[in-house]
Amino acid sequence: MPGDHGLGDWLRRLESLDPARIEFGLDRVVAVLRRLDVAPPAGRVFTVAGTNGKGSTVGILERCLRAAGFRVGRYTSPHLRRYTERVSIDGAEIGAAPLVAAFADVEAAAAGTPLTYFEFGTLAAFRAFSAARCDTWVLEVGMGGRLDAVNAVDPDFSLITTIGLDHQEFLGHTIEAIAGEKAGILRAGRPSFYGDRPVPGAIRTQAQVLGSPLTAFGEGFGVEAGPQRWLWWGGGARRDDLPLLSGWTDAQYRNAGLALAALQAFDAATVPAAAKLPGLLADAMPAGRFQRCVRGGREWILDVAHNPQAAAALRAQLATLPPADTTVVTALLADKAVAGFAAELAPLAGRWIVCHLDGSRASPTERLLAGLAEAGVHGAATAEDPAAAFAAAAAATPPGGRIVVCGSFRLVGPALDWLGL
């Protein structure tokens, strides 16, 4: 494809790529990467894997590194509204022109090698970072770790946030099996970090086999939150007497602690001073993570929680707020555990609205309703698309009530637009 085609042309082509025809593995990605003019910054690649909390952890790493003067390339997925959200250079979303140039470079290097949508985009992000001379890379794994395209670049610091049941058809049906896949981002002799407890045996074993020094939550670093203040410790450093952050629960503080532990191991000067840390952490949160606003006298909360573990974290965040008449609007992809997800939020919801999403990966509303029923939720309303669901929620929720939009990125993204955020 000629390099002067517009971004929309490239994205339509990428969306037409058929992963079913492509063998699962990293060999193709590594081969194309070798032919690209890409130079990852020595000693400054942070890779973040895990079931939940990756986006928040990446955001904290990026914000703190930039505050310390580094030129950071950040790669995340999926996106909420625009594909360009996935690639950030020095704190700014990449423009269409440099991304198109990176796509063209990837196609030239591929020379007919088949790539999936995610693989093509990941290689383009690496090329864009190299072209922009980013001196530090912060990369979010898309799924799993061992065979994820992001893992084609060797991390200097490997972070795993937490392990829960998600993407079982690809990663396995037990915590240990999934942990083994995510532990594939660890590298010999390079530090690794785990942000939850207990540490799965598969992660400890992989770290020992590789000689990767493992720093785990509650062992090499930790956070302690009280009624009014919290603190972080790790690597011989501490940040005490920090003000609590609105809506944060144990999960969010653990993510922050994980990011700070990796930064401390990288360069202690990148861990912000206590006076600056709360503001940096608040600014680091990506869109669609317990994002709150008021419209028409109703509170809206948007969150991309889409599996049972994330739904439990969302419920804990909601429990920090005053009780309110609550409507939940949700839509999930077909591979998600609907009943387990709904069961976590059911005690807080007075009404449910499920909506249809376009695309072959979307879960049909019939399946969503069946999953809700399995969780004891009956009488949920349905909507033909996200906009209809939001309008129905606004009409059904009384003034002073709360509307929680959660689930797929493909639902939360349209909610940002519908609310004008």
What does this structure look like?
The chain is of the alpha/beta class. It has helices at 7-15, 27-35, 54-67, 96-110, 117-131, 168-171, 175-182, 201-210, 250-266, 277-284, 308-318, 338-345, 365-374, 386-396, 409-418; strands spanning 45-49, 72-75, 87-89, 92-93, 136-140, 157-160, 192-194, 214-216, 221-225, 229-234, 237-243, 291-295, 298-303, 326-331, 351-355, 381-383, 402-407. Helix content is 38%, strand content 19%. Helix 7 packs parallel to helix 8 and helix 11 runs parallel beside helix 12 (338-345). It starts with 6 loop residues before the first helix and ends with a helix. The mean pLDDT is 93.
Salient structural properties:
globular, Protein-Tyrosine Phosphatase, Chain A, 421 residues, 2 domains, alpha/beta, single chain, 6-stranded mixed sheet
Mean of the pLDDT scores?
A: 93
Number of strands: 17
End-to-end Cα distance, whole Å, is: 35 Å
Summed up, the domain count is 2
- The radius of gyration computed from the alpha-carbon positions, rounded to a whole number of angstroms, is 21 Å
**Structure classification:** alpha/beta
Spatial sequence of strands, sheet with the most strands:
4-3-2-5-1-6-7-8
Residues in helices, as a percent range: 25-40%
> What count of helical segments does DSSP give?
15
- How much strand content do the residues show? 15-25%
Instruction: State the CATH superfamily name of the largest domain.
Output: Mur-like, catalytic domain
Which stretches of 5+ consecutive residues score pLDDT under 50?
A: none
Based on the coordinates given, report the CATH architecture of the largest domain.
3-Layer(aba) Sandwich
Major β-sheet profile: 8 strands, mixed
CATH topology of the largest domain: UDP-N-acetylmuramoyl-L-alanine:D-glutamate ligase
**Level-1 CATH class name of the largest domain:** Alpha Beta
Choose one word for the global shape.
globular
